[in-house]
Amino acid sequence: MRPELMHYDLASWAVAFSTTRLGGVSRGPYASFNVNAYCGDDPGCVARNREALAATLGVAVDHIVIPHQIHETHCRAIGTRYLESDGQSRRQLLEGVDAVMTSQRGVCVGVSTADCIPLLLLDTRRKAVAAVHAGWRGTRKRIVETVVRAMRDTFGTEPASLRCVIGPGISMESFEVGQEVYDAFAQGGFDMGGIAKRMPRMHADDPQPEKWHIDLKQCNRNQLLAAGVPASGITDCAIDTLTDSRFFSARRQGVASGRIFTAILLK
Length: 267
Hints:
Blueprint: E1 5-8, E2 14-19, H1 43-57, E3 64-65, E4 75-78, H2 80-83, H3 87-93, E5 99-102, E6 108-113, E7 117-123, E8 128-134, H4 136-140, H5 143-155, E9 162-166, E10 176-177, H6 179-187, H7 192-195, E11 196-200, E12 210-214, H8 216-226, E13 234-236, H9 250-253, E14 260-266
Parallel strand pairs: 3-6, 4-5, 9-13
Antiparallel strand pairs: 1-2, 2-14, 5-8, 6-14, 7-8, 7-9, 10-12, 11-12
């Protein structure tokens, strides 16, 4: 059993990747490679998948950091305090966290998604990294801007030194939303002409001929640019999770399904 990972080229001294659904032991809607313990999968399968990932990366299982996300903007720095804590304390430190960052070598920090947008950030000068979970609520709350500020405050990161990957997530064409979601972004001061458009309804039983679609990836790209990250440092993997069956998708499979793990490790 060996997980099939999709790698990103950010730096020779870091390993950045997203998991696919392939190479694990989970079953049903979690099949087969799921390392998220918060989505209803069998704990034994999750443990075996995590062990396989740790072996592939060459790190200890307890150095794979997976927070319990709640669509907020809290960012947790993973350092000595976390690494020296017991299991219960570690779980508490990761509760309600939607972004994790570290400058510790041999520690894999990542976030879980199944249509939401995962982002990886790497500081080429300070050798610090972060993983960000940006669903529509987190994007609306500008979580990626929060994380760039947190990296500056914690590591001395300059935005111009950041390289970023936008991982597998739902595309504008697939992200059909209700008026309330559109209104939330509009009230948040977003450039709606650049991130939203009306498109034919996706479901035949919907009485409305057109629905709003929002480009979450572009929203986050805009936030990175606004934070000072150079456009040349931003890469979009251009994968739509709704249509690409190699990856988990809550809209395609239901919420009770596996999660993609998008993560980064300093060698």
